[in-house]
Design a protein that fits this description.
Number of strands: 8
Number of helices: 12
Helix content: 40-55%
Number of domains: 1
Strand content: 5-15%
CATH topology: TIM Barrel
CATH class: Alpha Beta
Strand order of the largest sheet: 7-6-5-4-3-2-1-8
Low-confidence stretches: none
CATH architecture: Alpha-Beta Barrel
Structural class: alpha/beta
Mean pLDDT: 97
Length: about 290
């Protein structure tokens, strides 16, 4: 499976009772496709998958797969604190006919590099699906370092890595060490231009939920500098903390109501909204309404 373009890890809308709003999710998938995204990740970090029950995960993924109807590929996020749990999540993705997985390291557990590699192999090979690894140690506490990756790159199912560690030296390091064996995928927001300038051709970006036009513009060398400069203050503000609440608030400002988050997160504050409105105005045409 080749990964290219902008993949959006879609948010999970919640209704007034705090339940997953499948109707709103279907509508939002249509909004994303209409805005030209190249792929979708269901039940990822920005989708608050860590806060979903297994049944809710089923609802989210099945809704996304049904609504996309094969028009763009769908990856299912897989986490889990144990190998058993991650295998169950991967099995659900296979049953629901997703195109691949985005597999994070198990949070809190702190496996060794070898233990992490064994875990990944067991999960991926339990379903035989193309997989993007998700390197986000700030959230999981576990990096996909080269010791683990050295054990994984020869598995043909492990095809890429979403690099969200914040360490830009990883871009040349992983490219030089693994070449075509492991596709490097941008997992950064404010530093996305650095990835694209280095030749990266796919971006799995949470803020594409609100800024799909800017994401596509940053991926295009002809408009990269302009688009990046226009939305950089937004990207930096959202990355500075409370990422999901602020992303949902930005979506709300841009015309799609999905501001509710699931505890322990709290919604964005009035001050956040005021700041975001000002930044949207500064961004101009690169932050248009979603609908």
């Amino acid at each position: 499976m080749s990964f290219s373009g902008v993949y959006v890890p879609v948010i999970t809308p919640f209704d007034e009772s705090g339940h997953v709003d499948k109707k709103a999710l279907s509508e939002f998938v249509e909004v994303m496709i209409g805005n030209g995204v190249d792929g979708i990740v269901a039940a990822g970090t920005t989708g608050e998958a860590y806060a979903l029950t297994f049944d809710e995960r089923h609802h989210v993924i099945s809704t996304v797969v049904k609504q996309t109807a094969g028009r763009v590929p769908v990856l299912a996020g897989v986490g889990g604190l144990s190998t058993h749990e991650a295998i169950d999540q991967a099995g659900l993705a296979k049953r629901l006919e997703c195109d691949g997985l985005m597999l994070a390291a198990p949070a809190y557990v702190l496996p060794t590099p070898h233990e992490l590699a064994v875990h990944v192999k067991k999960v991926v090979n339990s379903v035989g699906m193309a997989t993007v690894l998700y390197d986000y140690p700030a959230r999981t506490g576990v990096p996909f370092g080269v010791e683990a990756l050295d054990e994984l790159v020869d598995d043909e199912l492990i095809q890429g890595i979403k690099e969200a560690s914040g360490d830009l030296t990883r871009i040349p390091e992983l490219g030089g060490r693994y070449g075509d064996k492991l596709q490097l995928i941008c997992g950064a927001d404010a530093d996305s231009n650095t990835f694209m300038d280095a030749g990266v051709t796919c971006w799995i970006g949470g803020m594409a939920n609100a800024l799909p036009k800017a994401h596509a513009g940053i991926m295009d060398a002809a408009t990269r500098a302009e688009a990046h400069a226009a939305v950089l203050p937004i990207l930096e503000f959202i990355e500075s903390g409370r990422y999901i609440a602020k992303t949902k608030a930005l979506m709300n400002i841009l015309g799609f109501d999905a501001a509710a988050v699931r505890g322990p997160l709290l919604p964005a504050t009035d001050e956040d909204y005021a700041t975001l409105r000002g930044l949207v105005e500064q961004a101009g045409d690169w932050a248009p309404r979603l609908v």
